[in-house]
Design goal:
- The protein is α/β, with parallel strands linked by helices.
- The protein folds into two domains: 211 residues, P-loop containing nucleotide triphosphate hydrolases (Rossmann fold), CATH 3.40.50.300; 88 residues.
- Helix content is 38%, strand content 14%.
- It contains 13 helices and nine strands.
- It has a five-stranded parallel sheet with strand order 2-5-8-1-9. A two-stranded antiparallel sheet has the order 3-4. Strands 6-7 form a two-stranded antiparallel sheet.
- Strand 6 and strand 7 form a beta hairpin.
- Bound molecules: adenosine-5'-triphosphate and magnesium ion (MG).
- The site of magnesium ion has 4 residues, from helix 4.
Length: 309
């Protein structure tokens, strides 16, 4: 399947769970026991595993590629805003490939702590060693650190990126007593779904104002159909019908639907159709059933499907 990450060749070749490579010679001091390796789990070689080796398919929709390139050349931290399934992650993968920089992705969640980003001391048979977190590794050796769904993280976690995303470009590792100066290639990118925030869950203004922002949305009809056809392998004609159905559902957002049908869902529907599932069943499974449990809304969407198929 074309959408398979490993086939596209840009999943990390190693588990991003920050395994330990061969430990360098002992150095530094530790709060508890001798530090065996001060950047264990983090090295230029480890970061290399996060390179995007194959060109990801990305269909640009406006001037976002040029804008991002300009922002990267100024090392401006960037925020990608847009609804679910509209191409934010694909875009950052493509840009990392285009710029030739490793891409370290962190899926944020509310249990994430600053240590999960920055690193921690680990105990093993040889004593205590420091293990860089993904943010530290990217900052130290020059990668793009992509914090996906950043509002899911607690605000006290998010603030650790502040010193890296202003003119200082440093990361104090308080527990280790080290200040990491960001590598010249380092950049922070965050994704953000506007409208999904609650009062309790939003970025602080002091975080937001450290970033430039690009708005993403579902592409216009012809472009979206081209993407759906490319990604799922479905015929362009059928892809156009799927996009019509999505546009219908998107108009119902706020009138019984919390969210419209995303490009990702259309690709799912297309993938089922290419596997000889009847279009009506494919749309029910991939487009209608996941987004609503309301019987009337399901009927309304099912009848939109029958209009086109
Ligand atoms: N402009 C585009 N070019 C190529 N593929 C695209 C584009 N937009 C969307 N896609 C396709 O849509 C799928 C979903 O996009 P993606 O995963 O990037 O969404 P997202 O905005 O990151 O969503 P989420 O907020 O849920 O993480 C991608 O896997 C890709 O196949
Ligand atoms: Mg994403």
């Amino acid at each position: 399947m074309r959408n398979d990450l490993s086939q596209r060749g840009y999943l990390p070749r190693r588990d991003p769970a920050f395994h330990t490579p061969a430990a360098p010679a002992a150095s530094g001091t530790s709060a508890v026991r001798p530090v065996v390796a001060d950047t264990a789990g983090s090295s230029p070689v480890a970061l290399d595993a996060f390179r995007v080796t194959k060109e990801p398919y990305y269909r640009s929709v406006a001037d976002e590629v040029a804008l991002y390139e300009a922002a990267y050349s100024a090392r401006m931290p960037m925020m990608l805003k847009g609804p679910t399934g509209c191409g934010k992650t694909r875009f950052v993968e493509y840009m990392a490939w285009k710029l030739g920089k490793p891409l370290v992705t962190v899926a944020c969640n509310e249990d994430m702590t600053a240590s999960d980003l920055v690193g921690r001391f680990l105990l093993d048979a040889n004593g205590t060693r420091w293990q860089d977190g993904p943010l530290t590794m990217a900052a130290r050796f020059g990668g793009i650190c992509y914090l996906d769904e950043v509002v899911e993280a607690r605000q006290d976690t998010t603030v650790v990126i502040h010193s890296l995303t202003d003119a200082r470009r440093i990361l104090p590792l308080e527990k280790k007593g080290e200040i990491v100066e960001a590598h010249p290639d380092f950049q922070v990118v965050i994704s953000y779904n506007p409208g999904y925030q609650s009062l309790m869950k939003d970025l602080k203004q002091s975080t937001k104002q450290r970033f430039g922002a690009l708005d993403f949305n579902y592409p216009e009809h012809e472009v979206e159909a081209e993407i759906v056809a490319h990604e799922s392998g479905v015929a362009l004609d059928a892809a156009k019908k799927l996009v019509h159905i999505a546009e219908h559902a998107r108009n119902l957002k706020g009138h019984g639907l919390d969210e419209g049908i995303s490009t990702r869902m259309l690709i799912y529907a297309g993938s089922l159709i290419t596997r000889n599932v009847a279009p009506l069943a494919a749309c029910r499974v991939a487009l209608v059933r996941p987004i609503t449990d309301d019987p009337d809304m399901r009927d309304a969407l099912d009848s939109a499907v029958t209009t086109y198929f």
